[in-house]
Design a protein that fits this description.
By secondary structure, this protein is an alpha/beta fold. It folds into three domains: 86 residues, Gyrase A, domain 2 (2-Layer Sandwich), CATH 3.30.1360; 257 residues, HUPs (Rossmann fold, 3-Layer(aba) Sandwich); 158 residues, Isoleucyl-tRNA Synthetase, Domain 1, CATH 1.10.730. Helices cover 54% and strands 11% of the residues. The protein is built from 21 helices and 14 strands. The strands form four sheets. The chain has a five-stranded parallel sheet with strand order 7-6-5-11-12, with helices on both faces. A four-stranded antiparallel sheet has the order 1-2-4-3. Strands 8-9-10 form a three-stranded antiparallel sheet. A hairpin with an 8-residue loop joins strand 1 and strand 2. Helix 2 crosses helix 3, helix 4 packs across helix 21 and helix 7 crosses helix 8. The radius of gyration is 28 Å and the shape is globular. The structure holds one RNA strand.
Length: 571
RNA sequence: GCGCCCGUAGCUCAAUGGAUAGAGUACUUGGCUUCGAACCAAGGGGUUGGGGGUUCGAUCCCCUCCGGGCGCACCA
């Protein structure tokens, strides 16, 4: 890669000036006035060299020009002492040619080659809704998994679902006791729609959760059900539990399919709980008894809390389940890195879990990385499934799809195609709105603002892609050639070539938004080019223009794929 | 109260310690008889929450204050 080549040249130059460089910073510039790459080494090492920055830059430049390269056209000193590299047209042609040859692999790298990585995300709870917060986790997780995959890792996707615990007990209690107007059992019949069954479970949960807080005797009953679910000692609870669990899981599958996620592993709390409890009990030196519970005493000076791992009922909590999960995952898939993606509300718990893990499974703790994302909040405030104030992923997708349908021109598509396309566009809008910003921060989710189809949006990228496809379709049979009769390397050409470095950075920082913002820049550059240039005009530079269009098309396709957004050929 | 995160244009967000802090949106205007107008072009809009410090250079690092979010023992 050109970056490494330049870095090497700078290092050599510094060496010959007897400067022991520690860091060579090399920046890909955005302003064409600053060339294509710039380094600040002269500013950094001026003091050490006993020269003023511009003098040092002069010396370095002299050293650099001793070994001319056909890739470099010009080296300039600018501003306070930056050294700017302008690359040659020859380099740009070769690089574009290379991009086209790589095709679907354009942008990929090998930084994680040979590594096994498992990525866990989404983590919805059976018996509760799959709401827009899960949608956020799924969108970010899927994109991170794809970026890691594109960096050469053997990647597995995992979903961890809370099929036991108090929330389940509340829902089960609700399903048994929820009244209906005619006094008959409210549970939908087996041939009822999945949607109907899911609504029943959600209502039951809300009913149970409210009663739990309002009525101490209900609280006791629910605690009893909770125990029965773990031990499977109640025939009535078992039956309704098994029914609800299956309905929930079937329902989630339909959502994953829609979202384009395929999990390699499903883990359940019913499984991690038992094992996690065993691990905790086997390590009495690490976990101690306190008020009838078993806790891990976090080091307060490091800001760690004391957390309950096994409650006084003898049941494992979230913490010991997570501990067990790390090992269960490893036994199935011996990972080099395990990435767990959750909302940031569990940050402090996770720090305690990792601290405990560093004592129980030190080698696994080192391999575990917790990534948290912000909350998806509504302008009205926080969602609550207890009060029924939630937006489910399905309803959001359905509403957005309606709006997309309204924009699709009537005559151009068959009815079936139209529906599929509207869903792609809707998901593109939703996913992009989540991925366009740094994932650690909360997103204030406003329908009008967030789900735009214009400007800084998913559909803008999809539209641009469809445009390139349509143009390439019309150009069938014509020559495509990066070199032929090119006048000069334009801005679009350069932006295309930034792609691999963007993917590299997104992988290093595990931040999909670098790709999202880059694709917008690329699309904008292309649309501007498109508005000012007639591509198919039989002019001598037509083959080169077509090469640019093709490269933009491929870059958008690959980039959208990394975001988990589909790229329709027409829209 | 303690800990972690955040504060950038009216709004939603970018910016690898670098050069003149950028996009979208909204608003005002212009462009479809040329390859797709979900597009393009132009315009105004900023004490980067306040104050101090480190640095050749700070939106970014440190301190402090203000404002917001999340968490702080048997829910996940």
């Amino acid at each position: 890669m050109i970056r490494e080549q330049l870095r090497g040249l700078i290092q050599n130059a510094l060496h010959s000036l007897n400067l022991e460089e520690e860091i060579v910073e090399l920046e890909q510039t955005t302003d064409p006035l600053h060339g294509d790459y710039a380094t600040n080494v002269a500013l950094m090492y001026a003091k050490k060299a006993g020269l003023n920055p511009r003098e040092l830059a002069q010396r370095i430049t002299e050293e650099l020009s001793r070994a001319p390269s056909s890739d470099i056209e010009k080296i300039e000193i600018a501003g306070p002492g930056f050294i700017n590299f302008r690359l040659s047209d020859e380099y740009f042609s070769g690089a574009l040619d290379n991009a086209l040859k790589k095709s679907k692999k354009w942008g990929n790298n090998e930084t994680l080659a040979g590594k096994k990585v498992i990525v866990e995300y989404a983590d919805p709870n059976p018996f509760k809704e799959f709401h827009i917060g899960h949608l956020m986790s799924n969108t970010i997780g899927e994109s991170i998994a794809r970026i890691i995959e594109a960096s050469g890792a053997d990647t597995k996707r995992a979903c961890y679902q809370g099929d036991v615990g108090m929330h389940v007990a509340k829902a089960v209690w609700g399903m048994i006791w929820i009244p209906n107007e005619s006094g008959k059992p409210k549970k939908p019949s087996d041939d009822a729609s999945l949607q109907k069954k899911i609504s029943f479970i959600a209502e039951s949960y809300a009913f149970g959760a409210t009663a739990f807080e309002a009525n101490p005797s209900v609280k006791e009953q629910i605690a009893g059900i909770n125990k029965n679910i773990y031990s499977r000692e109640g025939p009535q609870t078992n039956e309704i539990y098994d029914w609800g669990r299956k309905v929930s899981l079937d329902y989630f599958e339909t959502i994953y399919k829609k979202l384009g996620t395929k999990f390699d592993f499903n883990f359940f709390e019913s499984q991690t709980g038992e094992f996690g409890k065993k691990v905790v009990l086997e390590n009495p030196a690490i976990f101690e008894k306190s008020d009838g519970a078993i806790v891990y005493k976090g080091d307060e000076s490091k800001g760690l809390h004391t957390r309950v791992f096994i409650n006084s009922e003898g049941l494992p909590t979230y913490e010991s389940k997570e501990l067990g999960l790390a090992k269960i995952k490893y036994d199935i898939y011996p990972y080099d890195t395990s990435i767990v993606i959750t909302g940031n509300e569990v940050n402090d718990y996770f720090r305690v879990i990792l601290d405990a893990m560093s004592k129980v499974f030190p080698e696994l703790a080192k391999k575990t990385v917790h990534i948290s994302h912000g909350m998806l909040r509504l302008p009205s405030g926080k969602m609550s499934s207890r009060t029924g104030d939630v937006i489910t992923a399905e309803s959001l997708i359905a509403d957005t799809k309606e709006r997309a349908l309204a924009k699709i021109s009537q005559e151009a598509f068959l009815q079936g195609e139209k529906d599929i396309l509207a869903e792609k566009v809707a998901l593109g809008a939703i996913k992009y709105s989540i991925l366009k910003q740094a994932s650690g921060k909360d997103i204030i989710f406003d329908f009008e603002q967030s789900l735009s189809f214009e400007g800084d949006s998913g559909p803008y990228l999809q539209y641009t892609y469809a445009r390139t496809r349509s143009l390439l379709e019309k150009a069938k049979g014509r020559d495509i050639d990066v070199l032929f009769k090119r006048t000069e390397t334009n801005a679009l050409h350069k932006v295309i070539l930034h792609f691999p470095e963007i993917v590299l950075r997104a992988n290093e920082e595990r931040e999909p938004h670098f790709i999202a913002t880059y694709l917008i820049e690329l699309a904008r550059e292309f649309n501007s080019f498109y508005a000012h240039t007639i591509v198919l005009n039989d002019a001598p530079d037509e083959p080169h223009k077509l090469a640019l269009v093709k490269a933009v098309s491929q870059t958008l396709e690959n980039g959208l794929n990394l975001l988990g957004i589909s790229a329709p050929e027409r829209m």
